[in-house]
Design brief:
Elements lengths: L1 E4 L1 H18 L1 H20 L17 E5 L4 E8 L2 E9 L13
Parallel strand pairs: 1-4
Antiparallel strand pairs: 2-3, 3-4
Helix pairs in contact: 1-2
């Protein structure tokens, strides 16, 4: 399947990468971006890899999530032959804010 990233999710990924580079250096940032690319490849081959996201279970569409690392979660949905990463969510944020990032 094809995996696309929403503008909002891409913005958050870039902000996180920028922060990691500033605080931990280029190698850490490169590792983070490599992990993001790896998750995209895994999702393309295994769309149901992540469990249904419990914080979004009451919405009409089904959203799944995948924990990238201890602080970040990738939230995505499956539409026919396309997987859309709709949010890159810092798990330290207020859980209620997660519903604002999806449609």
């Amino acid at each position: 399947m094809r995996v696309i990233v929403s503008d909002d999710a891409m913005h958050r990924i870039r902000l996180t990468a920028k922060y990691i580079r500033k605080e931990f250096g280029k190698n850490s940032r490169d590792k983070f971006m490599q992990d993001v690319r790896q998750i995209r490849r895994l999702l393309a081959d295994n769309p149901n890899l992540g469990p249904v996201e419990p914080l979004l279970a009451n919405l009409p569409r089904t959203y799944r999530s995948f924990v990238l690392d201890r602080l970040n979660k990738i939230v995505y949905r499956i539409d026919e032959d396309v997987i859309t990463i709709v949010d890159f969510w810092d798990v330290r944020r207020d859980p209620a804010s997660l519903t604002k990032g999806v449609d």
